[in-house]
Amino acid sequence: MISELQRQHSRGEYNYVAGDGYPGDHHSLRLRRLSSQMSIHDFPHYNPSLSDAGDSEAGDHGQPRDLRSLPLPMAIKKAKLKSRGIQVPVLSKVELWKQEKLKKLRKFQTKAREFLYFLVLWGKTIQKIGGNFGGGVKSYFLFLRFLVVLNFVSFLLIAGFVIIPSLVFRQVGTSFMNSTGNERCTIYEPNPPGLVVFYNFFLDLLSGTGFMEYSFMFYGYYKNTMVENNSFSYKIPLAYLFTAVFYFAFCLICIIARMGTAARVAVATGGSTVVNYSMTVFNGWNFGCLGETATKLKQKNLLYRLQVDLEEESLKKRAASLTLLKKFGLHSLRLLMALLVLGLNIAAFYGISYATTYSQEQQNKRVNKESDRIQDLFFEYLPSIVISVANFLVPLLCDQIAKVEHYSPSITVIVALLRAVVLRFVGLGVLLFTLWDQITCTGNMDDAKCKECSYNYASYACWETRVGQEMYKLTLFDLLINIAVLVLVEFPRRMVVDNWSSKVSQLVGRQEFVVSSNVLGLVYSQTVVWTGALFCPLLPLINTVKFVILFYCKKITLFSNCRPPQKTFRSTTSAFFFLVVLLLGWMLASVVMIYSIAVIHPSRGCGPFRFSDNMWLIIPTSFYNLSAATQEFLFFIGSQAFTIPLFSLSGLVMCYVIALFSIYGKSVGLLRLQLKRESRDKQFLVKQIEELSR
Amino acid sequence: MGTTASQLDKGMLSEYQELTFLTKQEILLAYKRFSELLPKEETNGISYRIPMNAILELPELKTNPFNERICKVFSTSDSHDGSLNFDDFLDLLSAFSDSATLEIKSHYAFRIFDFDDDGTLGRQDLEKLVNCLTGGTGDTSLTPDEMKQLIDNILEESDIDKDGTVNLSEFQHVISRSPDFVSSFKIVL
Fold first, then answer.
1. What's the pLDDT at A47?
2. Of the candidates A21, A67, A135, which has its C-beta nearest B19's C-beta?
3. How far apart are CA A488 and CA A216, in angstroms?
4. Which residues contact A74 (CB under 8 A, 6 or more apart)?
5. Which of A124, A294, B175, B188 gets the highest tally of CB atoms within 10 A of its CB?
6. Both ends of chain A: CA-CA distance in Å?
């Protein structure tokens, strides 16, 4: 061993076949029972005594895997395989059988994995995207795929429990509760009389009115039917409510599960803002890069990135040495800019609120005239238009402001992202608030308009359908804007840049795929769908189709118009960040849902809840129809005797996990120290050898 | 064309499947591509050694800045001239395949980046590595000051035992913190 060390140290070349430079190898080698000398004929440097300690209890579990994961030339691996083959008769019959079964299982696993890989949606496309444009862009498409699957599964859920039973039982079922109270509030006529021309058909499609209003699309169509046989009873209102609640819970579970995997990865790789040169250099090259142009582009990217990082570092050093006066000036400037951004946001919100109010007024005023349909359409889409314009302009202005603020580049990205998130969500919130304001007369039940029916009956005969329509319009408009931008902005930009070489076009350059704003767009659409799902059960299906179209559009624009990104987006921590933002959107939507279910009076003229004061009241009334045993069981679950032990148990589990987490962190630190000491020991020993041999 | 597949019998195929991370289809495809590089008169494909400049004609390796290092690392020829026989070629594809483990990939990545084959990444190795990554020729490379700053930073971050070089364990420590490595260290025929 010592002579070998000496030999290696004096010679220039290092021999990788010996187990020395590869500590991880010991573990796998130790598991194998190799003591035959036949294998080392061709490679005298290889020392099998370094390896196994003859661990027979370790067994043959990992054996078929181990040979592959040895970083040795094929010839040695073949020799090892042969020598292992000789040892087989030594094993007992039981162990032989076990080995056979394990091998078969492994073969089956590899076959299953290959098959699954083939089935995965868009697998090959996303690989190609990742190869050409890097991890950041790939994470966007992975996120999009996750949303498509989520929406589709939710649609299946809703279809199975609400739409299909509604369809089937519509004629058969009986009415659940009978009408009580004010007759005037129950009048609801969604279908205007008159011929439906194709032109009107198209406009109705765009605005969710006319033939679409009284259909499976919207809440208003569903009746409170109930079917009861000897063994089977199905109440549509109950199913509707439970499906909506379960849909939200299901989405939450999916998001959190996905966050778990992303968080694990993010924690293991450390913080995202710390620039890691070693990571860039060691990890920088994508070996799958094919072709002359792609290679040159990648090299240019890496060069640019390294230069930018180095420059940022020297800037930071300079910034740290600013005088106190300059620091004060910088901070007050930043405060001023923050106030300016706040002012811009408030202006945008006021614009959205005003547009929504105006649009609702116009929609309520509308008498069924055939003329001016285009103008009506414009008024209907006014909130969507204002929101889209605000979402485009305000971040643009914020970018210009950010140039004045002189934050470091990584902080600038985070600040811009946060501002955009706040703008989108609060904008949506303002729209919803304005709608609520109109529907419930600002919550004031004594107002003249709301007194009679506990909601604004005059303007909103069926307010849930109207809310559903607004969400539907938002979704549709978002898709149309994306396609319009694609066709009208991105393709011409590429043609201009490619064919007309002037200074301006060089400066502007080809499009870059900005991951963060695209992801925020996705989160915004998903939030809109969540908010609207209670009122428009088909919205998840529409959203699935929309996201599929969006996938292909973005893919086309990516490959035709975009250049590879200059600054790589940290894909591992950013995946976690996207999910956090999605969770925020979910919370906003759940607030809306809870409020609609628990507080606002449902429409009396339409929908499955027309005869209750609250959507939630269905549950207590049905509760007492359950059998006594079930009632008792459910009461028990809600009582303190059950919940307090449950909470203390979960608290215990959480403490355990936190303790585990801190222990792992400490052992990582200890292992680092061990690494340091090991190499110091080695250097010390080598020096000793040199001294002794002198 | 029919004779090329028959050179790989079932026994050899299953042996290769066990010793590499490649599936049966991938091994057969590798054999097909390997045979295309053979000179016309050569019939025994498995044991023939293809010289480096022929291997570098493969489109997957042609424009890779590390192509010569890859050939030299996987070559088992006595003259260390980078020529590969079929076994070496399969080793190469196995290390670069989808299902190879992080340990295997990081081990071979380290050997590829070790330009002077001394078992550690010294300043010279790192400088050559950065030049390969950025296509360092003249005006498209870093200035000497920037290069020094960069290599100082790299060594400060990854050289744990402060001996001025990055050894295999330190390299693997850096790589293990990046989950993108497995997907970027990939060549698929």
1. 36
2. A67
3. 35
4. B19, B20, B76, B87, B88, B90, B91
5. B175
6. 19
| CA A240 – CA A226 distance, rounded (Å) | 12
d(CA B58, CA B68): 12
Beta strand A174-175 pairing with A225-228: antiparallel
Q: Which two tokens stand for residue B135?
A: 């296509």
Contact present, A604 and A186 (Cβ < 8 Å): yes
Over the stretch A580-629, which tens digit does the pLDDT of each residue have? Answer: 889 999 999 999 899 888 888 888 777 788 777 788 888 887 787 777 88
Percentage of residues in chain A with pLDDT exceeding 70? 79
Region of residue B51 (phi > 0: left; psi between -120 and 50: alpha; otherwise: beta): beta
| A327, two tokens | 């620091």
Burial of A492 (0-12, 13-18, 19+ CB in 10 A): exposed
Contact between A391 and A423 (Cβ < 8 Å): yes
Note whether B118 contacts A: Cβ–Cβ < 8 A.
Answer: yes
Per-residue pLDDT of A23-53, as tens digits, reads 334 333 333 333 333 333 333 333 333 333 3
A634 CB-near residues (< 8 Å, 6+ apart) = A623, A626
DSSP-assigned letter for residue A40: G
Best of B13, B49, B63, B182 to disrupt the A interface by mutation (most A CBs within 10 Å)? B63
Taking the CB of residue A340, how many other CB atoms lie within 10 A of it? Answer: 14
* Single pTM value for the model: 0.70
Q: How far is CA A315 from CA A304, A368, A407, in A?
A: 16, 65, 11
Query: According to CATH, where is 1.10.238.10 located in chain B?
Result: 9-95, 102-184
List the one residue out of A600, A584, A209, A587 whose CA is nearest residue A435.
A600
User: Which tokens hold the place of A12?
Assistant: 């220039």
Chain B residues with beta carbon closer than 8 angstroms to that of A73 = 76, 87-88, 91
Centre a 10 Å sphere on the Cβ of residue A507 and count the other Cβ atoms it contains.
8
Per-residue 3-state assignment (H helix, E strand, C coil) for A271-327: CCCCCCHHHHHHHCCCCCCCCHHHHHHHHHHHHHHHHHHHHHHHHHHHHHCCCHHHH
CB–CB of B24/B17 below 8 Å?
yes
- Select the residue from B161, B163, B167 to test the A interface by mutation, using most A Cβ atoms within 10 A: B161
Q: In terms of CA atoms, which chain B residue is nearest residue A683?
A: B163
What is the number of alpha carbons within 13 Å of residue A329 lying toward its C-beta? Answer: 7
pLDDT digits (tens, 9 = 90+) for A181-238: 566 677 677 665 555 566 777 777 777 777 777 777 788 777 777 777 777 777 888 8
Considering only CB atoms, B119 lies closest to which of A21, A680, A683, namely A21
- Topology of domain B9-95 in CATH is Recoverin; domain 1 (1.10.238)
DSSP state of A163: I
Q: Is the pLDDT of residue A545 over 90?
A: yes
Topology at the third CATH level for domain B102-184: Recoverin; domain 1 (1.10.238)
The DSSP H or E segment spanning B26 is helix B24-37
| Residue A157 CB-density burial (10 A; 0-12 exposed, 13-18 middle, 19+ buried) | middle
Question: Is 60 exceeded by the pLDDT of residue A61?
Answer: no
Q: What are phi and psi of A563, to 5 degrees?
A: -100, 160
Residues in chain A: 694
pLDDT at A135: 67
The identity of residue A339, as a single letter, is L
For A132, other C-beta atoms within 10 Å of its C-beta total 21
- Tell me the per-residue pLDDT of A334-364, one tens digit each, with 9 for 90 and over: 888 889 889 988 998 999 888 888 888 887 7
Distances (CA, A) of A667 to A451, A658, A662, B76, B179: 67, 14, 9, 39, 20
With beta carbons under 8 A apart, name residues in chain B contacting A22: 107, 168
Distance of alpha carbon B128 from alpha carbon B136, whole angstroms: 9
